[in-house]
Each structure stands twice: as structure tokens, then as C-alpha cells.
């Protein structure tokens, strides 16, 4: 039940590319690894055949600024071809267009890594000058750790996705963060096993990277492997005991395991480090409400609303808190906000119906909300009981009114 709740609002914290100064790309080229285009299939075969016997080579994925003019994009293929042959030749490299403004190159026959980087810089300069447009580039030089030749094209695409977070004019060399971003993309697509593989590859490159350790913990947590999740969160905490996302996630594991005292201790520590994280404030408010610590819960729920006013969950929990305090008008006001923000939240609908019924107000609306909550979750016994209670209240009021009418007649 808790895992279902996590997926909606109270969830594991992750640090990916959505920092205020970074923007995720509109297109992830690493998606071509799971849904390869004809062009990528052709290039993958060519690189496998051509580079299998090479000791060193560089693979680079190049994208023109997506905001470039249509005229610039129209001549991109011609420019890629001309610049490739002005810097290299058919004996020193291969290339393929992936779409109208993106290409992937491989080149070799350089003696040192520095010479390879100079060739890469020259290729960048030639193409950007010819097109009068900035480029986004992701590159990887072989050999790289124990990665095989056939993974080089995919790694270049992952580095391109990584570079795209920084925008035009940036080049990124493939690293552990590239794999974290790739894993996050797979996680976003609900391919948890593949995401775990990416994070593990990333840790083979950067074994003490907190983001990768935390990401792996999150993936195992969502996959309900809680012991494994805790193992990686603890490793991350040992590296940096003040990392708020890791502390929150440890607290969340304790909450899932119903160790509320431990969960509250970790969440309070996370709050002390950063009081402006929605998930921390929401979970703290929720847990304190469950512990009947209403006065302590309220400031955290109010903070969650301030941090994410478009979320109905904090309003709904406040409604439940007011119900527990027998402040039915206050509860109705909070549930009203929750239902406005999420008309299909069965808990908010049922709570709102109950708050109205306890005030003996708007019973027809209360009855319809109670019915809708049950329709959304037909197996919920509490919603069914709530519907029956409201129906009984309405029936009793009708009977009383009928008796009064008879007496007055």
C-alpha cells in the first residue's frame, strides 16, 4: 500500500538533470538503443565491422542547435559531409546522419589522446562555422574502462543527451553522470531493470558517486527490494552524512517498513538541513498526523502547500487532520481544495463527503462524492461504509421532515 502512495506524492528523492539552470532535452537520443532507427542500425553495423580491430578511436554524436533556422538544418547533411572530409578521410573515419540535424562520427589514426581531442575540436569548429550555429556534442574515446567496441555508439548518444542538458555550445565526454542520466531516462520509461544496469555501470566508473549510489537505491526501492535500496543509501550517507536526498530516502525506507520513530528522526534531520523540499515536508506532516501530533504536523503540511500549491495531497491530509479534531467546517474547506486540484482523489472525495455529512450540509453533493470515491476504489470498505452512513443520515432527515409535515397538517 505504501509503495502505491509513494508513486503518487511521497516518493524517493533523486537528483537528475532538473536543476534550475539545466533543462532536460526534448529528445533523448539514447532511446535509439531500445528503439533503433534504420540509420542507427546501419551505423552500428559499420562501427562493429570497421573498428573491431582498432586499438584507439573516438566516437562523437553531433547535434545542431535545435533552434537553428530551417535553412541551416536543410544544409546540415551537406556540411557534415564536407567538414568530415576536410578534417578526415574515408581511411580515417566513418559517419552517418541520424536525422536532419544530428550525425554520429567515428575517427581514428591519431597517436595520442590529445591529438584525438584536437581532431574533435577541429571538427566542431569547422561544422559550427560552416553552419553559423552552435553544436551540442557527446564523445567517447576507445578504449574506455572495460566497455566493448559495440557499445561506443550508444555511449556517444548518452554523452550527447548529457551535453544537451547544458545546451548548445557544450561538449561532454562520456562519464558516470552520462550513465546516471541514461539510467534516469530508463527509469522514467519504467524500465527499472535496465535503469539498474546503467547505474551499476556508472558505479564501475565512479564508485563513490553519491548521485549514482542514490539512484541505484531509488531503483531498488521502487522495485520493492528495500534491503538493497537501504544498502546503497547507507553507502551514499557514509560519503556525505549531510546529503538531504539520501537522508530523506533512508527515512522513507523506515516508513515503508513501519518504523515510524526512525523515519521521523531521519526526516527531521533532512528538514533541518533543507526546510524547502516538498517531499520532506509532506512526509513529515503525514507521519506526524498519523502519530496524532496535530500541532507539529500542521507547519509541515503548510510548508508543503507553499512549496507545491498545485498538489492536492497536503490539502487532503490537512482535511483528515481537521476531521480528527472534529473541525468539520475546516475539514470541508481543505478537502474542497484537494478535490479542485485532483477531482479523482478518492480519499479527498470520501473525506469531503464525510465532512459535509457531519455538518448535515449539502447531503446530495456529499452522497455523490461518496459514491464517486467508491467507484474509483470499489474494494475500499471504508468508502462503502461512508456512503452507507451518509445515505442513512439523508434518510433519517427525510423521515424527520415527513413526520413534521404530518404533524403540522
From TrEMBL:
Transmembrane segments: none annotated. PANTHER family: CELLULOSE SYNTHASE OPERON PROTEIN C, TPR REPEAT-CONTAINING PROTEIN MJ0798. TPR repeats lie at residues 210-243, 278-311, 312-345. InterPro entries: TPR-like_helical_dom_sf (IPR011990), TPR_rpt (IPR019734), Ycf3/AcsC/BcsC/TPR_MFPF (IPR051685). This is Tetratricopeptide repeat protein. Gene3D superfamilies: Tetratricopeptide repeat domain. Pfam families: TPR_11, TPR_16, TPR_8.
